[in-house]
Structures are given as structure tokens and as C-alpha cells.
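Give me the fold.
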Amino acid sequence: MKGLLLRLSAVDADAEAAVRVIVCFDELVTHRASLPDLVRSAAALAECPAGLERDGGATLRFGPDGAVPAEPEPDSAVSSAVEPGGRVWLERRSPGPLDDLVLERFAIAARLLAGPGPAVATPHLADPALVELVLGEQAADEDRARALVLLGLAAGKPLRVVAVGTDDGSDPGAAAVALMARGGAPPATRVAVVGDVAAVLLQPREGAGTVVSSLRTALAERARERGATGSVRVGVGDPADGLEARRSWLQARLAERFAVPGAEPVVAHDELGSLTLLAELPPERLRAQPDVRALDDLAATPAGAADVATLEAFCRTGSLRQAALALHRHHSSVAGRLAHVEDALGWRLDDPGDRFRARLALLARRLAARG
């Protein structure tokens, strides 16, 4: 265990550090560490005081040196809830790049160590060169097959490729590792950063059809626990044999362009249907379309961004009331914003044709922004 507690500041890559965080807490759960040891390990890993408080139990708080800090818990401490009651926290002046992941795994480990429960499989960081060989355009089949074997994947078994991007500039590899661990990643899970997104190669034991629902559940649970929508976009390609992984990868990249953090964070290619044709248009042509330009002009006004977000929610959910629920707004407020959109754009959203036009323009605008 001591080897796993290398300080995060000593690890160069965010994705590698994310794996180290997950492995550290998974090992603590596997070896049934005591709760004090869990808190000490979290403090050593994060290089700051850490604490655990459970309903009906004593509060545990240790510094990175394993001793109880003399100072009280500061107001700046960042915390995460532990079900069914309690919290874990880290104490530092400004958040570290992986504090969200440390808190998430800290809370999961605290819940599991307080009672019986299985550990979660850890996704493996893969050699990017091997992943690019599997997903690239030029490689011969024998080279792809060899790369799959070196990655620990079976060339003849179905796999799905997942593309993970972020809207806040954070490392997509770290985001992918955290998401896959949260979603119960199968043993045959390989992660590598390819360009500006992370590529995840999955061979689920239960079959490729379980991937989308698992990812959606994981992101929904994470949003509920944190009270925030997050910044992750996920596209899932269709199942394919290992040698056809590039096809699944291209589909995943396309689907990821349609995803919206929080509102629609996971998009599966096989659910898009004919909408994939829209993605074949060049971004500059999409941006030049009059309806897309009108949405951009509206979004640039003082309240326009909220108006466009309300229109997105209405088109996505299909009703004013459901849009209000999705936005956590009163339905009268949503109705007012939609009326402003109608006045500004000349659409009548109770007309099926105009609703379709609005939905198409919103999708085109989204794709244009993603390039």
C-alpha cells in the first residue's frame, strides 16, 4: 500500500494520477482498511488534512503526516456526502485538480468499509500508440490484431468504443478514468487520450448493450451527489468486432458532438438515426445557416443565453412542464422565456413544423460549435 500512496504532485499526467487515486482507494477497500487508516491515506494522497464524519459515529480527522491537526476544520474545506449519512472532506486553501475524484472515491470507500460491499474494477491506462493503431485508418489487420492482444483485448469479440470530452478544459483522460470506475468498468477496459478526447475501449462481460445505461446511471448518480451537472460529454459507438474498432470510434466521436453536459451527457450513435446526416455538413456551413445565426444573435443578448437554454430544454423534453422540471424553474418563468424566443425568432413553438425547425437549428448550432 505504501507504494500506492505516492503524492499526486509527483505524478505528471492527470489520467495517470486519476488511476492512482482509484487504485489507492480500491486497495484500501479490498484489504478492509480501518476508517482511521482510510482517512490517513486520503490525507497523504491529497497532501492536505482530510476528515470523515458519519451519523452516529465519531469524527475522524488527520493531516498528511498521520497526526490529528491542531487547528479546527477551516471554512474552505470541500466535502462530499457519504450515504446513508455523513460526509468526507479535504482541507486546503484552493482546490487541487483531482480533488473531485479524490472526494468521490474517498466517499465510496467510506461507504463500503462501513459495511460489506464489493470493490469496483479499475480501468487501465493504455499505451496511446497501441490505441491509435487499433483506431487508426492505415493499419493492416494483422497489426490491429497484434495491438489488441497487447492491450489485453480479444480481436474476435464485440467491443464498443467510447469518446469522452470535457467542456471546462479539464483532462479528458482523467474524466474518462473516473467515469469508467464509477460506472463499474469491466476488466477489459482500456483508456487513452487521442487528440482532444479520451478513447475508451470496452469489452463488457454482459454484452455491449449494457454500456450506455451504465454510463448514464453513473453520471446521474454523480450529478445527484455533487448537486452539479458536470462538464463531461460522452459518445458511444456501435458494437463492433475488435478489427472493426475504428468504425465504432468514428461513431463515438460523432455521437460525442451531439452530447450536452448535464442535460444530455451520454449519446449513443445507434440512437441518433438520420440525425447523423447533419454531422456530415461542414461546421462553417452550419454556422452560416440563417436559423443558427439567429440563435447565436439571441444568445449574445443579456438574457439570451438563458432563453436558448430554455428552448433547448423545451425541445428536448417535449413539454413546458417537463422543461421547467429539467431547469428547476417555475413553469411560468419557462413560459415567459419561450414567449420571448418566439418573438425574437418569429417561431410558434406550438406548431410542429416550427418545433422541428427549432430542434434542428439547435442541433446544427451545437455541431458547429464542436467543429
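Residues 1-8 have pLDDT under 50 and may be disordered.
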